[in-house]
Design a protein that fits this description.
Length: 216
């Protein structure tokens, strides 16, 4: 993710919110600064990986789910073959550019495992957040324009509200409900894609209810 973020938005975390989020995540997972800096250098073309490119594949998964697959590859033929294989094996099909991307919006997502909903909502909206969503387990997600994620997170921290995670993600505008038959196939597709070395992120609009999840 560090390589991808640096390649797409440059190596300055101050002007690249996706890179800043990736750095925070890497440091929280105890990545050393040396390893982190090498990954960023790779992303901006500072070493021998200049032939690497970011590729986005789109397709339809089980149950008509819309799926976007973000890859970092030095060999398009190898990567597309692996991605197509995963779709085919799970009953889906690889689509053309634009076939599902219109169903997703690029957003910043600032996540709290728990917290004061009113305080987070007030500070987030005042800082320019687009939406605040609270879940049954007490978790809270703050959605922002992806370019504004860093500024909103800084405002939240200034208000004493430190997030547990922050990332730039592709958020679906509609959901596709999975049943007991299609849910396992979707999960298998995600697993197969994430097992591909070139795949960096998998986004989808599949929705698995608690009732269906309990049967898996």
């Amino acid at each position: 993710e560090l390589v991808t973020a640096a390649r797409l938005g440059g190596g300055d975390a101050g002007s690249n919110p996706r890179l800043r989020a990736a750095i925070d995540k890497a440091l929280s997972n105890n990545m050393t600064r040396d390893t982190l800096n090498r990954a960023i250098a790779r992303g901006v073309g500072g070493d021998d990986d200049a032939n690497m490119e970011t590729i986005i594949y789109e397709g339809y998964g089980p149950g008509g789910t819309a799926v976007m697959v973000e890859c970092l590859s030095d060999n398009r033929n190898r990567t597309v073959a692996e991605v197509r294989h995963a779709f085919t094996k799970t009953g889906g099909n690889l689509g053309t550019d634009g076939s599902v991307s219109y169903l997703f919006s690029k957003k910043g997502v600032i996540s709290f495992e728990k917290g004061d909903e009113d305080a987070i909502m007030e500070a987030a909206l005042e800082a320019g957040a687009e939406d605040v969503v609270t879940y049954d387990d007490g978790a809270i997600d703050v959605y922002t324009a992806w370019e504004e994620m860093g500024a909103v997170r800084d405002a939240l921290e200034a208000a004493g509200l430190k997030a547990d995670a922050a990332e730039v993600s592709m958020i679906p505008s509609t959901k596709a409900d999975m049943d007991a038959e299609t849910a396992p196939k979707l999960l298998r597709l995600i697993d197969m894609l994430e097992d591909c070395d070139d795949v960096q992120e998998v986004y989808h609009n599949g929705e698995i209810s608690d009732e269906v999840a309990a049967t898996l």
